[in-house]
Write a structure and sequence with these properties.
Layout lengths: L4 H15 L6 E7 L5 E7 L2 E3 L2 E7 L3 H8 L2 E8 L4 E11 L2 H9 L3 H9 L9 H14 L11 E6 L3 E6 L7 E8 L2 E7 L2
Antiparallel strand pairs: 1-2, 1-5, 3-4, 4-7, 5-6, 6-7, 6-8, 8-9, 9-10
Helix pairs in contact: 4-5
Length: 192
């Protein structure tokens, strides 16, 4: 048994980066609104460590609205090539503005412009309407740097639990559960 789930995650993530054919950083993000209605979508991991697991989005997106109402989330990494998955659950904080600014500055220009042009998760009358907005934003920022939109930031899921699942023959899988308690982590096993 280990005592550091982040070290185990780092090991598994490095193996996924070497073997997963597409997007080893893809993770399912589950949120729920104020009534408990769940919602699930894929996002990309943009940073991780003992402080948590970070992704970026629009505050007015469905996930942003749900996280404003209910500051709990769950993540799932599924690495089919390794026959492994990692489940993470815990509270969510927004990242500091300086961190969001730094990440946004490193995005490709088209992605930066798209963040300004998109009312993420809102109804769209036509693709042409979005492309027209994108062209307007490109013209507005043609002369220089594209700043981070005020309604765009990052979130960090701070794990309370981390489960490491490994496929085994005959559905006799191995499930290791780390639970945060006090100043450290407890590890135990779950039945398959």
């Amino acid at each position: 048994m280990a005592d550091d789930p982040f070290a185990l995650f780092d090991e598994w993530f490095a193996q996924a980066q070497a073997s997963e054919p597409n997007d080893p950083e893809a993770m399912a993000l589950a949120t729920a609104n104020e009534t408990g209605q769940p919602s699930l979508r894929m996002v990309l991991l943009k940073g991780h460590g003992p402080g948590g697991f970070t992704f970026f989005t629009n505050l007015d997106s469905r996930k942003g609205v749900e996280l404003a109402a209910n500051r709990q989330a769950a993540l799932l990494f599924h690495w089919k090539s390794l026959r492994r998955q990692v489940r993470i659950e815990g509270p969510v904080d927004t990242v500091p503005d300086a961190e969001a600014d730094s990440y946004f500055a490193g995005r490709g220009r088209e992605s930066q412009l798209g963040a300004w042009a998109s009312d993420q998760s809102r109804p769209l009358d036509s693709r042409a309407m979005f492309e027209a907005r994108l062209a307007e934003v490109a013209e507005r920022f043609a002369a220089g740097i594209v700043p981070r939109p005020p309604r765009w930031t990052g979130y960090r899921v701070i794990p309370r639990t981390m489960e490491f699942w490994s496929d085994r023959p005959h559905r006799l899988h191995e499930r290791r559960l780390f639970t945060r308690g006090g100043d450290g982590w407890r590890e135990g096993l779950l039945y398959p």
